[in-house]
Amino acid sequence: METKLEQIAVKARREPNLRFTSLAHHITRDRVLENLSEIPKRSAAGVDGQTVEAAKESFEGWIEPVLQSIHRQGYRAPNIRRVYIPKPGKTEKRPLGVPTVADRALQRTTAEVLSAIYEQDFLPCSFGGRPELSAHPALATLNEVIAGGMIGWVLEADLKNFFGSLNHDWVLRFVEYRVGDPRLISLIRRWLKAGVLEDGAVRPSEQGTPQGGSISVLLSNMYLHYVLDLWFERVVKGRLRGEARLVRYIDDFVICFQYRSDALRVQDALRLRLGKFGLALEPTKTKLVEFGRFAQKHAGKRGRNRPETIYFLGLTLYCSRNQKGNFKVGMRTEKSRLKRSLLSLQELMRRIRHYKISDQAGEINIVLRGHYAYYGVAGNLRSLVKVCRVVERYWRKMLCSRSWASRRLTWGRLQPNQRADTVADTKTAPPMREAAGASSAVNQLPKSVVR
């Protein structure tokens, strides 16, 4: 963070009730250019069809008019292109909004300036869309809460159509609590009201914020900071009989309780609280589960072989024990996520099977490294090994299907680390040496999961 933004952060931390009345001058051409450079080159274009490279080349032509329009409160936010991506395990699709590249860079810059303030206000229970606070810290915190506390019940919750349900009036009221600069208020209002282009027609936006813009992540975190986090910490916890903790990752959150009676009370109050701000719980993803160090003993009394599991951020959490017999929270890749990853990898290998062997290995390993980086948590080694083995078998199948000569590819030639006496065909053609080297790269697993 630059010196001027650091000064804003220090002032916001020291004076939690201060309204900042002059912030627009921190949105400078240098910051916009820096954020424009951080946008991936292959990012989708907006309604104007301008690519990232084109936006960089024409930067000098559009940056000054944009900055001037912000200062005179006349900025007109471009329409947002609506696209749909499939939801895992469902027939319905998730709507995403694609701003123009220039508008995306401006959103990133504005979010950077506002984050200097709100990062001082956000509570430790909030994760996602924040610097250095991704899914792994959220999972580690949840593990610490359950394994280290007297937790017996977990309310697993998810908000229904969260990004599409944000009330614009409440968003602006929450922003105005800390931001008194009318230029930024006008800028955020224009983004909220930007039209949505879908099927060739532009329709106005009356509520919600498009999922896909940088400013949307900050506004959603700010919205739930006031609606959920502060309410739970300052109002709810003091009225409960036992221990209670909240862990939230943007719109996915779990609340841990010591007593079931507390969980039931909070569950009813939570529906009323969310309804006041135009939000609602997703019934199919919201459930109260007995979970924790005492759940195994109680499961036997209730006629179950094992305690129920909970689902959070693509991982299934279950009750387990370590080698010393003490309670621990086990984690493994959720079944539908695992199936989706395998299907995606198989589709990739079918599509690139006629590429050079080294190019295939590079494409496969890019996807595998991303999978390992996210799901590579302690205790999840078995799921990662399964992905590795399935990829290895399917890749050999794709290589064997390329031509009649390729059908001689044996496991010994694909895996050069085996002993020479186990290899049926010792005459390895040059392309297969390349494939063997690539196979060893595919087998690399992150060391962190072996702990």
UniProtKB/TrEMBL annotation:
Chain residue ranges for the region called Disordered: 420-451
GO molecular function, one term: RNA-directed DNA polymerase activity
Keyword vocabulary terms for this entry: Nucleotidyltransferase, RNA-directed DNA polymerase, Transferase
Reverse transcriptase domain: residues covered: 66-317
Domain of life, source organism: Bacteria
Pfam families tied to this protein: RVT_1
Residues in the signal sequence: none
Compositional bias of kind Polar residues: 440-451
Record family assignment: Belongs to the bacterial reverse transcriptase family.
Alphabetical list of NCBIfam families matching this protein: group_II_RT_mat
Protein's name in the database: Group II intron reverse transcriptase/maturase
Organism of derivation: Bradyrhizobium erythrophlei
Source lineage: Bacteria, Pseudomonadati, Pseudomonadota, Alphaproteobacteria, Hyphomicrobiales
